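Quick sanity check, Glycosyl transferase family 28 C-terminal domain-containing protein:
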Amino acid sequence: MADRAGDDDKTRRVVFVTVGTTSFDALVKAVDSPTVKQELFTEGYTHLLIQMGRGSYVPTKSEGGSSLAVDYFTFSSSIADHLNSASLVISHAGSGSIFETLRLGKPLIVTVNEDLMDNHQSELAEELADQKHLYCARPQTLHQTVADMDLNSLVPYSPGDATPVTKLINRFLGFPDD
């Protein structure tokens, strides 16, 4: 049994899902769907860890074996450890979650919460997706994004260059591009 646990550690590929401090049941339901879980398993991921925030939807736990092992929690004092151990991060469109994940160089799928009014966070996610730093999805398209993603095509984000973010903020505020 000890040998098997060692083998599991070498082949463990974790997908960490975070909704931040909000409620984003549509994202939790999407990643808990058989379609998305099967796509992740097909892509070689072994574990799905969901930070579900204030949501009311409770994912289905499973032990893995011939499918994805699924676990969840509501909040953590720090998600840094979860981000560090992740092979893939699926996140809400909060700028803190986005930039913390990109700073760590982790592949990222940002899922936009379309239920939020005046959601400028989606503009940030879409701009960073256009620059190929991450993938952007909606809950209903998440399975297709996972199926189609090519993580080798992502461009590392350089945290020292604030120009793209500055341009996005200026555009949002109505200032002309330089």
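Posting the structure with no commentary besides this: The first helix runs from residue 2 to 11.
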